[in-house]
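forwarding from the other thread:

> can someone predict this with zinc ion?

sure thing
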Amino acid sequence: MKILGIESSCDETAAAVVEDGRKVLSSVVASQVDIHALYGGVVPEIASRAHTEAICTVVNEALEKANLTLDGIDAIAVTYAPGLIGALLTGLSFAKGLSYSTGIPLVPVHHIRGHIAANYVASPELKPPFIALVVSGGHTSLIKVKNYTEFETVGITRDDAAGEAFDKAARVLGLPYPGGAMMDKLAAEGDKKRFPFTVSKVHDCPFDFSFSGLKTAVINLVHTMEMRGEEIDGALKADIAASFTKAAVKTVSRGVEALYAEGEKLPLVLSGGVAANSHLRSALKAFTEKIGVGFYVPPLSLCGDNALMIAAQGYYEFSEGKRAPLNQNAFACMEA
Ligand code: KG4
Ligand code: ZN
């Protein structure tokens, strides 16, 4: 069964064709990073306009690369939530039009479920149940994946997402948007013990996360140094990046460790843009090895937003009979 996936929830316009949820026939991603880098972050209206300009070309390219026309597509899977509302509506409206005009069924896919499904493509042997840790620019969630379409959220960020904290820390250090990947490299060169940032703990739920305190702490540290006239040179930046990364990784792993401390035995499956972070990958790999549970993480190319993850999850949703009506709406929030 061949599924055309369409993704436009943030700053990537993407389309892909995936067969039976696991075999990638094509994947095209048009990134808007260069446009938003001028502003130091994603500008929602600009994102919507750029999606509108790119979507036709991206979908056509995905079909061409898969050597298919729409006649060969069994279902169209599209991200309907969560994300920037104008950006989501661009992809969803396009997909609805395509479905209405061709009669190809439309399947709504939750973006977070998509991130998790990137692992089905990366690891063909992976099957639920497992524990998914989704860490991205907009989300930090610990989810029990009971089967391909049944999910139970175990922990969630109470404020900012991990990626938001990485991006703001990068911005205050003068790194270009999106700064996560550069923070990763810089952190490898610095002294992680130089600035002992507090690792937050959510008292009433040990599996929840909080990143706003860490984000504010790194911003305040840099602003205070600037006010004192201290020169923030390359070595100092690396020490700040390393210290911040250490605390961010600890914030994420503390929630994971708390869950496994309760006797959880299911494998851990990492996904989302921040899953590309080398320090987080190695910390979680070491932890899962230590306690003897499986660990899955997609290659770097499948961590960020793409449409093959939407097509992969779309296959399982479609197989379970999920369909989007033509009045399907988009939702900005996580709970949709
Ligand atoms: O999943 P994603 O592409 O978009 C959302 O769904 O939010 O995640 C993007 C986020 C950005 O915040 C970016 O800075 C972060 O992932 N990111 C990283 C790394 N690569 C990307 N954060 C830390 N280390 C990295 N290597
Ligand atoms: Zn994402």
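The mean pLDDT is 97. thats all i got for now
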